[in-house]
Amino acid sequence: MTRFPAVDGLRVIAALAVVVSQVGLHTHAPFAGVVSRLDVGWAIFCAVSGFLLYRPHVLAWFSGTLPPLTLPYLRSRALRILPALLVAVVLSIVLVPQPATTYLRWAVLTPLPFYLLLPGLGRLLTGYERPTRRSVRWRLLVLVALTVLGPVWMAAVMATGHPEAGLWLPGYLGWFAVGMGMALWQVARATGRLGPSTLDMLTRVPGTLWGIAAALLLITATPIAGPYDHSTPTAAQALIKSLLYTVVVACVLFPVLTPTARTVRVLGGRPAQLAAQLSYGVVAYQFVVLGLIDGPFAVQLPVTLLASVVLAAVSYRLVERPVVKNAAVAKTESKATSPSSSPAR
């Protein structure tokens, strides 16, 4: 399987969850606990990125081919992230009395250290030996260990009085590692490096895993996982919240690796594909919209959603897609005119 259509639906769900949680932070939202914990959408985005970006490294390892080239990979990441980010920052500075650039930095720049680290991390985890069953299991254990890093880091920075360090990569690396571990498991399982297990059964009952994820999210909605705003949690609260989010994203992502036909229809249909293209823009532009409007939760939520979708669609059509197309054309022309492609005389 080279494409995972149900992942598109997860992107849309994650973006919607993030918008709802951010509107809740700006208003007196009903069910404040549940609404605030929808910031789990950030964790879902991280896990999806870890899965999609690490999987090519695993495929190259298993096939004995070269891993993805670093410069083209970084170029594609920059083309995907920077156009909408720059537009959102400019709009924020020009339109918002108190620019939302701080929020935009949290929302968009947090994954960048992971994107920069991934080529080296991918080579480290897929090199040095053949992809045997033993080597695959060892690397899965390493990635499982990385999932624990996030909760431990969050607890440590709260305990030592440095909550701002919670925005650093170690606080989020565990969520990326969830996706990376699932990429390794999926390829190893599809190629026979790993044999059948009870995990295969779980992929056939997605409702069970998603029900577990919902139940765990309700647990985080209690004070056990900390305050519902930007107040500093205790070390124990930070540990519990990060750990539960890690399990939630694992339960959410795992069923889409080998989705049922119904899962593909619901999460991978044409509407989900179109919405997924706008999900990044919606997350970026919602901070600008929130800086321009005021009112109760019931008013701000639909207005923020609608305005963010419109801005994301315009941005995608007029900025993001043309930038990608022009870059592709320039790359093609560069190859055509390079000395190595010139005909011999």
Q: Specify the oligomeric state.
A: single chain
Provide the succession of SSEs: HHHHHHHHHHHHHH
Radius of gyration: 21 Å
* Largest β sheet strand count, sense and barrel closure: none
In the predicted model, the low-confidence regions spanning at least 5 consecutive residues are none
Number of DSSP-assigned strands: 0
Mean pLDDT across all amino acids: 88
Gap between N and C termini, in Å? 44 Å
Structural class designation:
mainly alpha
Number of helices, where a helix is a run of at least 4 consecutive DSSP H or I residues: 14
Into which percentage range does the β-strand content fall?
A: under 5%
- The rough form would be described as globular
Instruction: Please indicate the count of domains.
Output: 1
Helix content percent band: over 70%
List keywords for this structure.
14 helices; 345 residues; mainly alpha; acyltransferase activity, transferring groups other than amino-acyl groups; acyltransferase
Molecular structure report:
There is one protein chain. This protein is an all-alpha fold and 345 residues long. The chain has one domain. Helix content is 74%, strand content 0%. It has 14 helices and no strands. It is globular and about 60 Å long. This is Acyltransferase. It comes from Kribbella soli. GO terms for molecular function: acyltransferase activity, transferring groups other than amino-acyl groups. Keywords: Acyltransferase, Membrane, Transferase, Transmembrane, Transmembrane helix. InterPro entries: Acyl_transf_3_dom (IPR002656).
